[in-house]
Write the C-alpha cells for this entry.
Amino acid sequence: MSRIAYRYAKSLLDLCIERNEVDAVAQNMSDLYATIRQSRELELMLTSPVIKGDAKWKVITALFEKSMENTTMKFMHLMIEKGRESFLKDVAFSFAGLVRTHRNQVLAEVVTAAPLDATTRQSILVAAQSLTTAQIEITERVDSSLIGGFVIRVGDKQLDASIAQKIKQLKREFSENNYVPGI
C-alpha cells in the first residue's frame, strides 16, 4: 500500500467518521475497487497521463453518479483535480483495510480444494476465530492444487491443513530418513 493511497484513505475515513457515513462510503469504495479491478480499460484510462482530468471526471461521473454517495463523488473529484486519479484503486483498497481496523475486524482468507458448504464454513469460522480476538470477515478461494483440506490466513498467522502440505511434509521426512536397508 503506497503512502499516498494510505493518506487519502485515512483522510476519507476520518471525514466519514465525522459525518457518520462510514458504511455507505465503504460500500462505494468497495464497488469502485471492484469496477476498476474488473475493467482494464478503466484502469488504463485513470493511469494515463495523456487523458486530461476533465475527460476522466466525465467518465467517472457517467459510471458512478447515480450509484454513489455525494461524499464519495466529491472525494473522487478532488483526487482527479489533484492529479492523483491513478491512485483511486489503491485508495479504495486501503480504505477497506482502514474500515476493517476501525470496526475491529480482521480479514481471513480461506483457501480450499472445493467450494465450502455452510457447515464447513461455520467450522472454519470457529477455527479462524480462535486465532484472533477481532471479528472475522471471511473471503473464500478455491485452489484445486491443495488436493483436500484447507488453508486459513488471518493477518500474519496461517493454519495449513491441506493434503498438499501433508504430502510435502512426508516427502521431506522421507528425504531426511537415514535408514539403510540390509545393514
Remarks:
- Helices lie at 3-19, 22-38, 40-47, 53-64, 70-81, 88-102, 118-129, 163-175.
- The radius of gyration is 22 Å.
- The CA atoms of residues 64 and 172 lie 53 Å apart.
- The chain has a mean pLDDT of 91.
